Structure formats: C-alpha cells, structure tokens
C-alpha cells in the first residue's frame, strides 16, 4: 500500500478512507499518569480519536497481547490507522515482544508513531534500504527499552551492596523501627519495581502498606540496611 497520512480532523471527503488515530498509554508507576502522556502527545501535535490505556501492568513480563487494553488494539486497529505511543517502552520492555508487536501492526497496515523523537514505523515501503533502516531502528529502540529495565535492577542491587558495606563499618547503629517485611518480601518488592509494577499492585501482592512500598522504592538500600541492623 502507499503511505497514508492520518486524518487530523474535519469531514471525510468522498472516496477517502475513514481512518482513526489511537493513543496507547501504559501507566505502570505512580510517577506516570495517563493525563501526562496524553498532554505530551497533544503538545507534539497529535489529535486522537481514542485513548487506550493499561494501568499497573509490567512492560517486562507481560506481553502486549496479555494486557487487557493492549489486546484490544489488535482487534481495533485496521489498515491506514495510526497508533501513537509516548515511546516504544510503552509497548513493552521486552525486546522480542516489542519487535514482534511492531511488525504485526505494520503487517496490518498500521502506522506507529512515537511522541519522543518523532519516529514513524510504516510497513508500506518496499525499498530494501528503507526497510533495512526501519528494521534496524526498531531493533535498536526495543533493545534500549529492555536495557533500561535491566539497568534499573543492576542499580538497585549496587545500592543494596553499598548500604551493606556501610553498615558493616559502623560500630554503633541506631536500628529505628523494626521493619514490617523480611528479606524475601523485600526481594519481591524490588523485583516488581524493576518490572514497572505500580505501588498498589505491589502492596496487594506482598501485604505491605503503600507507604512501606514507597519507602522501599525511594531507597532500597536503606530498607536492606534496616533488615541487617535488626539481624533479619
């Protein structure tokens, strides 16, 4: 098919396809909001016919087709439609899933646009050089999304190790309040945070309060140190 520009408003002319533009948002943490992603896209000049969002869903372990609203996109979008996302990490943080998702949408004739960097992934081109550049960019962006998630896990582990080293050097330690969690629970909280799980979802699974989860998120090293100080 030839490249199709999506309609930015106004009545459809005779013979034109009635195409739609859909904004997909994945809101996985308390710092992210649907309103922020939508406002950012609108400031970039996008106009939407519909906004679809998944809340509290990990982009690392939960595939696009396994998300309640993500699954709907595959049935909702048709040839000539445009899918807008803030960045490819909203589609996911797993390399294989992100590349597969983008390729499947392009095969359906759907154009994917990102708010950040203004990238366009379009399956209509038949030029081999353009296809190679496009596919290389898809691979790079998907790999970057996964690398960011993995880097977060590494940074959290480094922070914990640093806190342990500092605790070992102290001769007198004020232990403070006894933690309401053990090491197994702390490890699960850190794992879910690395997967972009929301505070409420983590609290529900671990039995901790939202305030405790937020304290761990802000300083996982301190949480581990507190356990060490209590001999837990």
Strand content: 5-15%
Q: Provide the CATH superfamily of the largest domain.
A: Resolvase, N-terminal catalytic domain
Low-confidence stretches: 1-15
Fraction of helical residues: 40-55%
Topology order in helix (H) and strand (E) letters:
EHEHEHEEHHHHH
GO biological process, one term: DNA integration
Domain Resolvase/invertase-type recombinase catalytic: 20-167
GO molecular function: DNA binding; DNA strand exchange activity
Active site: 28 (o-(5'-phospho-dna)-serine intermediate)
Provide a brief overview of the structure.
By secondary structure, the chain is α/β, with parallel strands linked by helices.
Task: Please tag this protein with its features.
Rossmann fold, single chain, DNA binding, alpha/beta
Tell me what the structure shows:
GO terms for molecular function: DNA binding; DNA strand exchange activity. Pfam families: HTH_7, Resolvase. The active site is at 28 (o-(5'-phospho-dna)-serine intermediate). It comes from Agrobacterium albertimagni AOL15. This is Transposon Tn552 DNA-invertase binR. This protein has helices at residues 34-43, 68-76, 95-107, 128-169, 183-194, 199-206, 210-218, 220-229, and strands at residues 21-27, 50-55, 82-85, 111-114, 120-121. It has two domains: 21-132, 3-Layer(aba) Sandwich (Rossmann fold); 145-229, no CATH class. By secondary structure, it is α/β, with parallel strands linked by helices. It is built from eight helices and five strands. It is elongated and about 65 Å long. Helix 7 (210-218) crosses helix 8 (220-229). The N and C termini lie far apart (63 Å). 49% of the residues lie in helices and 10% in strands. Strands 2-1-3-4-5 form a five-stranded mixed sheet, with helices on both faces.
């Amino acid at each position: 098919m030839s490249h199709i520009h999506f309609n930015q408003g106004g009545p459809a002319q005779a013979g034109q396809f009635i195409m739609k533009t859909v904004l997909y948002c994945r809101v996985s943490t308390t710092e992210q909001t649907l309103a922020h992603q939508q406002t950012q896209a609108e400031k970039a000049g996008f106009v939407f016919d519909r906004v679809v969002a998944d809340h509290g869903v990990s982009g690392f372990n939960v595939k696009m087709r396994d998300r309640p609203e993500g699954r709907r996109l595959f049935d909702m979008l048709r040839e000539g439609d445009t899918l807008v996302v803030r960045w490819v990490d909203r589609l996911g943080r797993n390399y294989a899933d992100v590349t597969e998702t983008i390729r499947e949408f392009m095969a359906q004739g759907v154009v994917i646009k990102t708010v950040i960097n203004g990238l366009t992934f379009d399956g209509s081109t038949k030029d081999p050089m353009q296809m190679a550049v496009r596919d290389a960019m898809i691979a790079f962006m998907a790999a970057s999304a996964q690398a960011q998630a993995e880097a977060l896990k590494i940074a959290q582990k480094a922070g914990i190790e640093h806190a342990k080293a500092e605790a070992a050097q102290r001769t007198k330690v004020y232990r403070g309040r006894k933690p309401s969690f053990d090491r197994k629970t702390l490890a699960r909280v850190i794992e879910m945070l690395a997967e972009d799980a929301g505070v409420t979802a983590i609290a529900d699974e671990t039995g901790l309060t939202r305030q405790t989860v937020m304290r761990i998120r802000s300083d996982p090293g301190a949480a581990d140190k507190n356990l060490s100080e209590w001999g837990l």
